[in-house]
Amino acid sequence: MQVYDVIIIGAGPAGLSAAIYAGRARLKTLLIEKGKDGGQIILTSEIENYPGSLEKESGRSLIKRMTEQAASFGVERAADTIVEVDFSNDVKVIKGKKGEYQGRSIIIASGAYPRPIGCANEKEFMGKGLSYCATCDAAFFEDMEVFVIGGGNSAVEEAIFLSTFARKVTIIQNLAELTADAIAIEQVKANEKIHYVYNSVVESLEGDGIVEAITIRNTETNETTRFDADEEDGLIGIFSFIGYLPQSKIFENIVEMERGYIKTDEKMATNVPGVYAAGDVRVKNVRQVVTASGDGCTAAVAIEKYLHH
């Protein structure tokens, strides 16, 4: 059986960047992806904050170029879903639904995904008014009305950020109060642009191709309220910040984790020799395309040195 120098699990920005660097280093590299390349970024219709991105760059166009670049350096591909791993020996074993793979080192770049709101039509409007990243998409809603789902630190901090663009921000919280830190709550309460709807959840999103209306249900009275986009805007921004779910379950009890995220050092190394993690699946503060790409680069360079030693 072929033993690869490095096997990369996941073809998002972290995995593709790692593949590019590993391929350029002439490492025998296998990149495994269960679905489409790109991960969360392919849901983004326009990217303005990735260095060097083209005008009107979309998530799909950026990932397409990354994929082509990785292929140009001889990176091999496998379309498979990983179901089991064995990292106990020098040669690591990865078992997928379609086959078994062996590598001297591993980069876990399986990513994370936003916790779903759970409302009707959620999938239909991803990237079409519904966003899980204020840093990515706030500028598209300048002088419009937006709704923020959640009441924790992330939701409150992003609501404050969104208020620098939107004319009105409404936080929808399923509890009777915000659950963010006291300082964050003080800051958000001092912001006149930000309003609140408590004890409420989102029932549905509606519109013709883009979000034009949101229906909210009060969890105490079951009363529903519909908010329609201003006629001049034609669009409502919905930003959900109710947490992320790392795709790390098959690595439980194998590598060290924190709340489901894989712990690494600054070289992206886990506690298991030869096993690295990059991108949104690892413990980190900022989850952006540029930071995921940096993680992938760091992991691949570290592995090149690890293999040589």
UniProtKB/TrEMBL annotation:
Homodimer. One of its GO terms (cellular component) is cytoplasm. GO terms for biological process: removal of superoxide radicals. SUPFAM superfamilies: FAD/NAD(P)-binding domain (SSF51905). Its EC number is 1.8.1.9. Binds 1 FAD per subunit. This is Thioredoxin reductase. Keywords: Disulfide bond, FAD, Flavoprotein, NADP, Oxidoreductase, Redox-active center. PANTHER family: THIOREDOXIN REDUCTASE 1-RELATED-RELATED (PTHR48105). One of its GO terms (molecular function) is thioredoxin-disulfide reductase (NADPH) activity. It catalyses: [thioredoxin]-dithiol + NADP(+) = [thioredoxin]-disulfide + NADPH + H(+). Its cofactor is FAD. It comes from the Bacteria. Residues 4-296 form the FAD/NAD(P)-binding domain. InterPro entries: FAD/NAD-bd_sf, FAD/NAD-binding_dom, Ferredoxin-NADP_redctase_2, Pyr_nucl-diS_OxRdtase_2_AS, Thioredox_Rdtase.
